[in-house]
Amino acid sequence: MTTILKLGGSVITEKDVPETVDSEALAAAAGAIGTADVEDLVVVHGGGSFGHHHAEAHAVTATQGSQDATGIYAIHDAMGRLDDHVIEALQGAGVPAVPVHPFSVASRNADGETTLPTDTIERLRAEGFVPVLFGDVVVQAGAGATILSGDEIVVLLARSLAADRIGLCSGVPGVLDESGAVIDRIADFSAVAGALGGSEATDVTGGMAGKVRALLDVGTPASIFGPGDLSAFLAGENPGTLIE
Ligand code: IPE
Fold first, then answer.
1. pTM score > 0.90 for this model?
2. Residues contacting ligand 1 via CB (< 6 Å)
3. Of the residues 7, 51, 190, 228, which has the fewest C-beta atoms closer than 10 A?
């Protein structure tokens, strides 16, 4: 049973204060992972106030690249610093977490299709490690480097590792309907298009509509839930919104 868990940047950082870890929230998430009985886990985390801040400063987005090595390294390095905190918190909670830096292994073609080789990740898992990846910069043909979001990494990994479950631990308790209530289950995008701002929404990196569509596309059952539900998810429950 392979589980891919993303810790959203808004969960583990203070989103509005540059480069500030929400230590309490990170420790709580790490503790939940440490006490859970999960056989085969890959962790991905977002950027929060580390990545987005630097990406904006250097005008780099998922589609707008930069050839400026200083700027690209500033974004990658900030994410690396956040990752150091995540690894330390996970190891402190007894999780055999080790980092895999996406910038060093992923690449994108001129059409924006991303390749993320997983042989290292698979070997790490076989040796009992928990690989930890994160939203990062990625080299892109003809564009220098662009942003590779943690959500996109989750989708790529779910496909190549044939994952059984995806969990997105986010700042919201699930996908919300028009009245603000959590939608229990989404099997079809058209049923929730109204609540999510319509099927024309094209935001594939940050918006909920893009997230839901990408997850429906993968086919791996995916739960979107808030930090308080992390233990329940890891125990096999389906808190928040189940997308399948
Ligand atoms: C962002 O990753 C990575 C960078 C900006 C370098 P995500 O887009 O997955 O981060 P969050 O979870 O939304 O903060």
1. yes
2. 8-10, 46-48, 51-52, 55, 75, 79, 135-136, 147, 149-151, 205-206
3. 190
